[in-house]
Design a protein that fits this description.
The chain is an alpha/beta fold. It is built from 7 helices and 5 strands.
């Protein structure tokens, strides 16, 4: 049965960073958490992937990020993987499949792969092998109510049951929110465009 992947990232941030596109000195979008779901063609979850990642340039998490995501310094220090390992594991999870995000998370992924390689770290598996696609424009077109919300609020905006334990800005929860939205749309006869998965 063909499968595809939904993924979401949480990355270092500070007050005002998003509005300034992370342009302040030293503000890099270093991945702190990766969440991913391998999905069947029928939009059921086949497998989950989740990892915490230890940032390198900004190893101390901002209080803003901790408040936003619930990810605390002690947990990242204890459970976080080195970036090259987390990125390699994630790419292995995606290998040979279409990989969907709600937004341009693939750009942040590419930045982090580039930084790891500049540091001389080896990334297993090629980031270009899967087909990464931002489904937000398509989703906002078929469900206009979603246009102003983040991935973790999609389920709520469409009046769906809570898709999983947790809250928005947790990468895996956000993936479940996207998956619930796709399942809901498929139930109404709106499927992903042909050739996307």
């Amino acid at each position: 049965m063909p499968t595809f992947v939904i993924f979401d990232l949480e990355f270092t941030t500070w007050p005002g960073a998003m509005e300034q596109d992370w342009s302040a000195p030293g503000q890099l979008r270093e991945i702190v958490q990766i969440g991913a779901l391998r999905m069947s063609e029928e939009y059921s979850v086949v497998e989950e992937y989740e990892a915490l990642v230890r940032p390198v340039v900004n190893p101390r998490l901002s209080p803003f990020l901790t408040t936003l995501t619930g990810i605390d310094q002690r947990t990242v220090d204890r459970e976080g993987l080195p970036p090259a390992q987390a990125l390699s594991d994630f790419l292995a999870f995606c290998r040979g499949r279409s990989v969907l995000s709600y937004g341009n998370d693939m750009l942040v992924l590419g930045e982090n792969i580039g930084w790891a390689r500049v540091r001389g770290e080896k990334i297993e598996h090629n980031a270009l092998t899967p087909g990464f696609v931002n489904i937000r424009p398509w989703l906002n077109a078929v469900a206009p109510a979603t246009a102003s919300v983040n991935s973790g609020r999609l389920w709520q905006t469409l009046g769906l049951p809570r898709p999983a334990p947790g809250d928005e800005h947790s990468a895996l929860f956000d993936c479940h929110s996207i998956a619930a939205t796709l399942r809901h749309l498929a139930g109404k006869g709106v499927s992903l465009p042909k050739g996307l998965v």
